Amino acid sequence: MASDVFVDEALPRLDLAAKYSRASADTVDRLRHAERFTEVSIPVRKDDGSLEVFTGYRCRYNTVRGPAKGGIRYHPDVSSGEVRALAFWMTFKCATVGIPFGGGKGGVIVDPRKLSERELEALSRGYMRGMADVLGPDIDVPAPDVYTNAKIMGWMADEFDTIRRGRYPGVITGKPVARGGSLGRDDATARGGFVCLQQIEKKRGWNPKDITVAIQGFGNAGQHFARLADEAGYTVVAVSDSKGGIHDPNGLDVRDALHTKTETGRLPKQGKAISNEDLLELEVDVLVPAALENAVTKDNAKKVKADVLIELANGPLTKEADEVLAKSETLVVPDILANAGGVTVSYFEWTQNISGYYWKLETVHERLGEIMSDAFNQVYDLMQSENIPMRTACYAHALNRLADAME
Ligand code: NAD
Questions:
Q1: Rounded mean pLDDT of 318-337?
Q2: What does each C-alpha distance from 98 to 23, 24, 338, 378, 405 come to in angstroms?
Q3: Whether 404 contacts 42, CB under 8 Å
Q4: 54 C-alpha to ligand 1 centroid (Å)
Q5: Which of 91, 85, 61 is nearest to 8 (CA)?
Q6: Residue 122 C-alpha to ligand 1 middle, in angstroms?
Q7: Which residue of 336, 339, 364 sits with most ligand 1 atoms within 8 Å of its CB, as the best mutation to test the pocket?
Q8: pLDDT (tens digit per residue) in 217-246
Q9: For residues 28 and 18, is the Cβ–Cβ distance under 8 A?
Q10: 217 CA to centre of ligand 1 in angstroms
């Protein structure tokens, strides 16, 4: 195998965490392997009458703490190694926040933008037909991921119900609210990251209005984070999307930015224009990468001046950038903690589905806040007692939980 993200990035994380964890060597060995890896072929009759056969994967990495949990992505670059690595990360993310799920992930090698709506539905139902034996509310529960959405989850859930001849809303999360989705899922990821910021605020005795925040990426995660920070009195000085950003050292009008982005798809003209690269290097207290992977590399890591970096995006730091920042004064709140609010509310959705009792929005917010702040403080304490980067502490904390369950 040439370059495999599972071998190159996931397994070294496990070995490093093991140094600071009480997990036995047997547990660590067990966690070097996925429980089950399934590959299916999915024939789809195209609109022009031709047949195309797609490859789909599902990895059930570990279920010792509960059913596997993790999204299904549709992307031309999906590979078995990537799916395995993402399932490994989900195992550690769920263990970090202590929700009763293991880790899983799925994917199909496809560019969904090249499919018609009917072809996309046929592919999604075909994926579920291939995977129905290995999925289910009590064993492995998918969700949306890159280029999949609530509608696709709805098709898959419907196909599962047809195959099993029953109603199983807990087979998939991220469903439309009308089909058993949870309130509060839309801003859950940002809200979870924001709870981490509030915990740091407490520890450092910050007054929000004196604290400046820059956010890269103005989609679901970035926009909600900007709104929550603004509402709490933080000074949001810069935001950006794929076309570039805006910067005002005295603070942006966040409500206007949100409104204009929703109405026009673009950021408003406010302050000065700033490039995505320069945004990362601003003299701010808090930097929030909320766009793509590998935004901070070995070339710009040294130029990051923020006191705190909250990884709302998955993998926004390359391995080299992470090493540079681990040696710096910047506190990096790692993705498997910072963006775990999303999977936590997915857990709430599943809980509501299997109990058949649906919660108010305030209940979702309150319980999310409790889970995220507990997890943050447990990881923070381990970081301090072992004098290790927060990312290593996070993996060690998760590994302890996995070991407790396995041993
Ligand atoms: P999204 O598609 O809604 O938004 C992505 C944003 O990034 C858009 O504003 C886009 O313009 C911007 N962007 C794209 N390329 C960029 C670039 N080169 N520079 C700056 N901005 C750029 O996606 P999202 O749901 O907000 O997810 C963002 C990140 O958060 C991803 O890494 C995702 O994996 C992670 N995440 C999201 C969730 C969730 O629930 N939405 C959960 C966990 C992790």
A1: 96
A2: 16, 20, 14, 11, 11
A3: no
A4: 26
A5: 85
A6: 27
A7: 339
A8: 999 999 999 999 999 999 999 999 999 999
A9: yes
A10: 6
Any atom of ligand 1 within 6 Å of the Cβ of 149: no
**Ligand 1, atom 15: closest residue by C-alpha:** 242
Q: What is the CA radius of gyration of the chain?
A: 21
Nearest to 99 by CA among 402, 407, 406: 402
Q: How far is the CA of 242 from the centre of ligand 1 (A)?
A: 10
Question: Which residues are CB-neighbours of 350 under 8 A, at least 6 positions away?
Answer: 137, 141, 170, 173
Per residue in 43-71, pLDDT (tens digit) is 999 999 999 999 999 999 999 999 999 99
Determine if ligand 1 sits within 6 Å of the CB of residue 291.
Answer: yes
Query: What's the rounded Cα separation, in Å, for the pair 386 and 383?
Result: 6
Three-class SS state of 166: coil
Instruction: Find where tokens 């997915």 sit.
Output: 346
Give the separation between CA 374 and CA 382, rounded to whole angstroms. 13
Q: Which fold has domain 2-15+23-170?
A: Rossmann fold (3.40.50)
The one-letter amino acid at 247: H
Residues contacting residue 265 through CB under 8 Å, at least 6 positions apart: none
C-alpha 383: how far from chain center: 22
> Is the per-residue pLDDT at 251 higher than 80?
yes
Domain 188-338 superfamily per CATH = NAD(P)-binding Rossmann-like Domain (3.40.50.720)
List the catalytic residues.
Answer: 105
Within 13 A of 227's CA, how many CA atoms are on the CB side? 18
The answer to whether residues 297 and 321 touch, using CB atoms and an 8 Å cutoff, is yes
The ranges assigned to domains in the chain are: 2-15+23-170, 188-338
Q: Determine which residue's CA is closest to atom 25 belonging to ligand 1.
A: 220
Do the beta carbons of residue 308 and residue 331 sit within 8 Å? yes
Q: Is the CB of 342 under 6 A from ligand 1?
A: yes
Neighbours of 341 (CB within 10 A): 29
CA of 290 to the centre of ligand 1 (A): 5
- Count, residues in the chain: 407
Is 220 a pocket residue for ligand 1 (Cβ < 6 Å)?
yes
Best residue for ligand 1 mutational test, from 113, 145, 148, 292 (most atoms within 8 Å of Cβ)? 292
d(CA 175, CA 156): 10
Tell me, what amino acid is at 312? L
Q: What is the pLDDT of residue 3?
A: 65
